[in-house]
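Reminder to self: tokens first, then the designed residues, so the page reads top to bottom the way the pipeline ran.
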């Protein structure tokens, strides 16, 4: 690790870590959704899936928290456990894109992303809304890794060329910080062509100043404020 690099692992101050089963299921559901979107005719396996889904939904509903509101601090255990959204949301939530950093520093960062079929908008291209989500995710990932982050105040995406799905893309981020704000500019690149860029401004707050910083722990563990 160089002097500019920061640790990228999630910490309890941003929420609880997802279960291993949740991570494995997210990847499988994203792959399965891509296959469903690629079918040209109805298939008997899908009928079997739908019947099984109804049974699984009932079983999981009985085990899940009955209240979908996030549980903060010492709130009632009937509320849902909040999972950390600081890092790698796509690893446990199939609705978000996955990405990898190869450099994560306080001022710059870079990595790779490949958008599967589930993020398609126009034929063969990534939906612009998912690109905005992607920029927000990687920029806030870097902010949280520096332990100074906050609510997104503005997000502006500039589209230069269409972004293809199923392609290995690179991204880079340049980050500047003031007393109260953080401004980050990210680019999505194919070969040497900049496809689009995103500029995000967020509040600059330490973790203990974030709303809901006292995240609940899993049942059987006491919640505690980060140090």
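Designed residues (227 positions):
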């Amino acid at each position: 690790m160089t002097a500019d690099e920061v640790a990228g692992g999630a910490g309890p101050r941003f929420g609880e870590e997802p279960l291993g089963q949740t991570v494995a299921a997210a990847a499988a559901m994203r792959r399965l959704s891509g296959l469903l979107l690629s079918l040209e005719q109805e298939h008997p396996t899908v009928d079997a899936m739908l019947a099984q889904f109804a049974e699984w939904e009932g079983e999981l509903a009985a085990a899940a928290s009955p209240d979908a509101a996030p549980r903060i601090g010492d709130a009632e255990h009937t509320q849902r456990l909040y999972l950390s959204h600081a890092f790698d949301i796509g690893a446990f939530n199939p609705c978000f894109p996955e990405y990898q950093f190869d450099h994560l520093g306080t001022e710059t960062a870079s990595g790779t992303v490949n958008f599967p079929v589930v993020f398609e908008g126009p034929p063969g291209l990534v939906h612009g809304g998912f690109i905005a989500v992607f920029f927000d995710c990687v920029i806030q990932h870097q902010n949280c890794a520096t332990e100074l982050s906050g609510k997104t105040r503005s997000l502006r995406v500039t589209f230069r060329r269409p972004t293809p799905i199923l392609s290995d893309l690179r991204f880079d981020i340049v980050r500047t910080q003031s007393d109260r704000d953080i401004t980050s500019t990210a680019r999505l690149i194919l070969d040497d062509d900049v496809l689009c860029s995103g500029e995000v401004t967020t509040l600059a707050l330490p973790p203990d100043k974030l709303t809901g910083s006292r995240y609940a722990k899993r049942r059987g563990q006491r919640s505690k404020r980060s140090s």
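The two ends are 24 Å apart (CA to CA).
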